[in-house]
Amino acid sequence: MRSPWSVVVISCCIGIVLLVSCGDSTDPTQEAEIDGTWTGTWQSSVFTQSGQFFATLLRQETSLGGKITIPGIGMQNADVQGSIHGNSVTFGDIAGRIEFSGTIDDNAGSGTYVYPEEGDHGSWEAERADGSADGSNGELDLSFGLGGIVVSDVRCEVQDLATLPDGKILVAGNGLDLYSTKGDFMVIRYTAEGALDASFGANGIASVSIDGSSAHGTNFAVGPSGMISLSGKTLQDQAMVRFQQDGALDDAFGVGGILITDLDTSGGENPLGVLLSGTLIVAGTKDGHLIVSAYDSTGEPEESFGGDGSVTIDLGLAFEVADLCVLPDQRIVVAGSADRAAWVVRFTAEGVVDSTFGAHGTAMIDMGDEFVVAKIVDQPDGRLVMTGFAGDMFSPVFVMLRLATDGSLDGAFGSAGLVHEPDAGQIALFEKVGFPAVQADGKIVVASVGNMIFSLYRYTENGSRDMEFGTMGIVTTDLGSTGGWDHARAVCIQPNGRIVAAGCAGSAETALARYWP
Fold first, then answer.
1. CA 297 to CA 274: how far, in whole Å?
2. What's the whole-model pTM score?
3. Is 136 within 8 Å of 517 (Cβ atoms)?
4. Distances (CA, A) of 229 to 209, 222, 297, 450
5. Alpha-carbon distance 390 to 513, whole Å?
6. Which of 51-65, 121-135, 470-484 is most confident?
7. Which of 378, 390, 383 has the alpha carbon at shortest distance from 417?
8. Across residues 247-268, what is the average pLDDT?
9. Is 112 or 225 the better-scoring residue by pLDDT?
10. What span, in angstroms and rounded, lies between the C-alpha atoms of 279 and 127?
11. Cα gap 34→37, rounded to integer Å
């Protein structure tokens, strides 16, 4: 059955606003259902502009509501509100006087628009999306959020990202005040569809303030019981916070859910992981030495680890810890930087240095230039992928390398085990680049911080750009923000294989986007 439907596009020299609505007949209950997600294109006749829009529509008898986003012109989650009168829809005064018309037949629609104040007019076309059709190779997943994008009015400097077995998404980082001052350890949970999860914390947000504005969270891990541990720094110490599955602080951990240790805060990050036993593993430095510690569910040292709850390694260098990962066999890998080199140390689950890895448990890769490690992740086959950047902060070059299971550079990856990406190194000062995630097929997706663009790079298993992904192996997403920098800071792979990236839109809003693999 046919249902009249109309879209409004307003175009002028300074911006464009597009709204979606539907028509009605004398018996609105007989009209075809239009609830759901729609995607469309518009073409301006006067200013020769064109673009794409995404709309989520909800019809209620003779009225229409919903949200719409138009990437590239600063429109994100704008309200759709319309009243239906027969075959016409009235929106009132929206950014100036407008006139519009259109129809929808089955799952597609088209029409025209006029913006009298500027003399602009044009046409539009739309089709039902609803996420039912599969995409591929970096296309936005339109079933997620609005047109594949979620921008939340939550000020958080994203540091870490993970997906849960049920598809829910966890984002961790630093809560920011209006002046972008770091102060809160924050975890945000989204549903698998991209909505803030109201069953977690306060409307999807769990946060705690430690030591005023000097504290900020950096890394987190989810234990087998669902507890969420977040590590970070205060002005002088390392701190950990543990949240229960519902986002409440775990009072049984440390003091009121918070544990402060006396590790240095100037020696890089304080990453953590969790063993299948629930033991929490944390890495840090003290007096230039690498220290890996283990804690039980109450925050007490796990004395079976290393003999007294910790292991200290003297590399003879001013070592900066970057990241930590726990392998499927429960061995522990810690990565960091020192003296123009990338360093990786592997331990058994009991805290013993693994002598089968590298030279006496340590792999050192001389980069020949200043080098800062960003992240390390394991592939299903046990090989390790590490990212970072070489050079100074003003002209950094993104570097990715892969280690074989014995700690040697994997010569089958890139050029002698290394991949260099000068383009991906256009980063903001003091920012680290290259948060990687490994797909089930071995392809590697990297979130890139830089050039004010929310972007992902994908590589084949041998380290070459995956030319089927986006354009020349790169996918960029315009979040529609105004001012500030859009940037992706983290990426993960959901259980269904789809790619989720998290970062910032504009000045400080938390942003997610989901893509088809």
1. 11
2. 0.77
3. yes
4. 15, 6, 10, 28
5. 28
6. 470-484
7. 383
8. 86
9. 225
10. 51
11. 9
